[in-house]
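User: Teach me something about this protein's shape.
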Amino acid sequence: MPAFRIRRINAIAKEGLRLFGDNFAVSPEEADPQGVLVRSSQVDVDDYPSLLAVARAGAGVNNINVDRATEKGICVFNSPGANANAVVDLVFPMIGVWKRNIYAGIQFCRSLAEMEPDKVGAEVEKKKAAFRGDEIAGKTLGVIGLGQIGVRLANGGVHRFMKVRGFDPSPALVNIHQLLPEVTICRSIRDTVVTADIVSLHLPLTDGTRGMVNREFITRMKKGAILVNYARGPIVDEEAVVEALDCGHLEAFICDFPTARLVGHPKVLTTPHLGASTAQSEENCASMAVRELSNYLEYGNVVHSVNFPNIESTPTDKVHTRIIVINRDVPGMIALVSNIIGHHGINIASYLNQSNGKVGYNIIDVESAVPAAVLADIENNADVVRTRTISFA
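Assistant: First, the predicted structure itself:
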């Protein structure tokens, strides 16, 4: 019998689902899963009594109540970088479509279908000047958010002979180290956008970023700049953007989140949420999410979690049981857990601990079975959020 029940929500690429081994039973109807695999649907962790982890096949996790998950000791994963190529692959063409008047040019060419064939060439030569565009080489690109997508976009700007400036409010060194040396890392949003001809947003949707691009933000931007949003719609205050377009402060708004107000605006170019919609991106996201979820359930390892610290340990062939302890990040927890295990006469073969300032996560390997009384004693402490054991016997 499979050890773990997985609820699949939304269509998940089959290439990813194939990575689940015999230990897993995967179903869209599972009512009480230990793991949830999701793309864009809302997930309320309180709906599933036995839930241990949620894996999002994508980068953003605003469709999951992460704070509540943390309170309950439920790990939430995302798939950072898995869709990065897909987004960057779309952003640059969309900038080009606007700057080179490609959309208007295509519409013009289609209008020639009813013209007499021998007059098409002359009409093209007569009207083509109306669609003359502008190159992005030499322009300044400002990138707000230097995760995997932002880094690749910034580097792509360098390859297109642009001047690139980038900023991230919480930079991860692993991403920053991937930036080309030609990219200028700024210390503030203002320094990033004040000279930028094009500003591209690549931030997650959080309480801090919701509505971040408001009138004050746009006022700091260079007059005549283009704003690009292929991150999340609510990051941008739509009212402020439309005002800036109407008064000429912004040349254009290019985004992936059409609304009734935006789709009819002559200075807005929008796609129907296509940023990550490629076969390759969906396969990459699904595969990463499945690996994260299965590794957590089978071994207790944490990789790419948005609410738990990253921590991995490979059990030796002598390990009988792995004890997982999730606690609030307060002093004395390692000693508390160690003493309780020792008090029950159990020898600890390996103890690994990591914290992220809010959650402490402990992986303790022992060479014997662990009675339920051990976990009960550990859970009696008010700062312990959750425990579980994984048997390798």
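Now, about its shape. The radius of gyration is 26 Å. The chain has a mean pLDDT of 95. If you'd like, I can walk through any region in more detail.
User: That's plenty for now, thanks!
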